[in-house]
Design a protein that fits this description.
Layout (H helix, E strand, L loop, with lengths): L3 E7 L5 H13 L3 E7 L8 H9 L25 E4 L2 H5 L10 E4 L11 H23 L8 H16 L1
Parallel strand pairs: 1-2, 1-3, 3-4
Helix pairs in contact: 1-2, 1-4, 2-4, 4-5
Length: 164
């Protein structure tokens, strides 16, 4: 069985991309090996992101906020798919990724700065649910037999359908 490498990108790599990494690893059940990174990593993981994952029983070993530079060098891990989950990361000039992975944008509202704390927890639950819906739909695809173009189109359609 092929194991697909997925990178979930956001600007700060503290909230949405962390949720995406954890959900891909958890729901992918060994078929997916996911990572997350940011163009301007905050250096810390939002504690409400960790709380949300724990509430849903999603394991997240060795989580840290890191730069996308770790995945862009010539010796970097070969990625199969990259998902941007915030508008700023989708619009930024990205590095040239080794292997030219399939990319798609799944915009999710930023829960990290919602106030007060009770509203932030609700915002994290919403972001979690939106990511989970998209990831489940993506994992149902026959990735092993699809072309890169078909995967990109399917990933974009998943976002549109989930946003509707």
């Amino acid at each position: 069985m092929k194991i697909f490498n997925v990178l979930v990108l956001c600007t700060g790599n503290s909230a949405r991309s962390i949720l995406g990494e954890a959900l891909f690893n958890h729901l992918g059940k060994g078929r997916i090996r996911a990572f997350s990174a940011g163009s301007q990593p905050s250096g810390t993981v939002n504690p409400v992101a960790l709380e949300t994952l724990q509430k849903h029983g999603v394991p997240l070993p060795e989580v840290r906020s890191k730069s996308w530079d770790e995945f862009a060098g010539p010796d970097a891990l070969q990625l199969d798919f990259i998902f941007t989950v915030c508008a700023s990361a989708a619009g930024e000039a990205c590095p040239i990724w080794p292997g030219h992975p399939a990319t798609a944008h799944w915009g999710i509202a930023d829960p990290a700065h919602v106030e007060p704390l009770a509203a932030r927890r609700v915002a994290f639950e919403t972001a979690y649910a939106e990511l989970e819906k998209r990831i489940v739909a993506f994992l149902e695809l026959p990735l092993e037999t699809m072309s890169t173009a078909a995967i990109i189109e399917a990933a974009r359609n998943i976002h549109v359908e989930a946003s509707a």
